[in-house]
């Protein structure tokens, strides 16, 4: 093992960035390499993880203090906004929704899972009493026309949209207006999904409650083993196939998850599809028929196979408490969604301004899912004395898929596809800290930046400091 020179060692020991267990290696004839130990730390990252649903969005007011505490104390960055509308009123309470969304925007980096539904009302004269669970299509379209501009306005704090509107809780089940399960009016149901897809920003995915709903929305006659699922190209290009995800609000209930799946083919489809679209939801009442499926080993395996990105912490308590008692809840918190960990970084410890630097890194996604939307990745050099920052585009996270390693090489050495990075000729000489920035392209705000658990994170800047240091002559 080659040892770094004395100047490099001095800088390293004095830095606040040093991680215990770090090793140094030399890539033969190329660049000094630093290895990063794996981390078991639970961290908050945007658009993934456990979420809170403590009350419906139209009734229970969000509080900035409470929202901030979710992130600070529980590493939670998602909240459910289930907004119930009045089916007899043509108006959407826009002011109330905007007030709620502004509180989320003012929070320390939280975002919403958004769904609209209707407050149930009794059918007059029915005996026994029957309930109206949703509104006719014309009323839904009337409401959506008012909602779509709100989605555009608050797209920065909407993680994902659930199609909603139909059936109890907007979960797309039995409906007097849209047909019962097994006899659905797919033409009218699909108009809701298509309205979301056609009139919302393309980076926002739209989740459906049952996999058959996706096949129907994409004009397939049925869902079978030959039905196409999302590909990397769909994810990258934000096609309709790549924008329709899944939410299962009866996860682990029984073999069908309360009619989420008609058969094993439906579930297999989600297993294939979820490689490139978002999946989340909540558990519901425990079924005595499922036995070990509710326990940690089986639940962990299933969440991994289905690429789960988020899960309700508040419902159903029997599952969450069971995961806690059996000791797997921390693992679930770590692995829901994406989890990027550094394997190694490589660069020399000095360079000349106006010259080039060569940088390479290897990173792995130890989470269960791809990010809901790709983010730009930048190398940042921060002058130690002046704190002046210089940013260099490296790549995006679009191909940082679950379980896969990626090596990003910005160097001029053989077998490398990318050129090295050119330093501005006006850069001040001196010592520089080196960091990675995985920022939110919509806002650029540090509170939405992605953290890497085995680096030192600066929440003010949104930087992940590397162990590397750079002296510019």
Description:
The structure is a single chain. It contains 12 helices and 23 strands. It has helices at 6-14, 64-74, 94-106, 137-153, 186-199, 211-217, 232-237, 240-243, 264-273, 296-305, 317-326, 329-335; strands at residues 23-26, 32-35, 49-52, 78-85, 111-118, 121-122, 131-132, 158-162, 206-208, 244-251, 279-283, 310-312, 340-346, 350-351, 356-357, 359-365, 376-383, 389-396, 405-410, 421-422, 430-438, 456-458, 463-472. The chain has 473 residues and is α/β, with parallel strands linked by helices. The protein has 2 domains: 6-40 and 341-472, Immunoglobulin-like, CATH 2.60.40; 49-335, TIM Barrel (Alpha-Beta Barrel). The chain is 25% helix and 25% strand. The strands form 5 sheets. The protein has an 8-stranded parallel beta barrel, surrounded by 4 helices. Strands 14, 17, 18, 21, 22 and 23 form a 6-stranded mixed β-sheet that branches. Strand 1 and strand 2 form a beta hairpin. The longest helix is centred in the first third of the chain and has 17 residues, at 137-153.
CATH architecture of the largest domain: Alpha-Beta Barrel
Proportion of strand residues:
25-35%
Provide the low-confidence segments as ranges: 1-29
CATH class of the largest domain: Alpha Beta
Query: Into how many domains do the coordinates divide?
Result: 2
> Biggest sheet: strands, sense, closure?
8 strands, parallel, barrel
Mean pLDDT: 91
Tell me roughly what share of residues is in helical segments.
Answer: 10-25%
In what order do the strands lie side by side in the largest sheet?
Answer: 3-4-5-8-9-10-11-12
Number of strands: 23
Q: Structural class of the secondary structure composition?
A: alpha/beta
Total number of helices:
12
Global Rg: 25 Å
For the termini, the CA-CA separation is 27 Å
Predict the CATH topology of the largest domain.
TIM Barrel
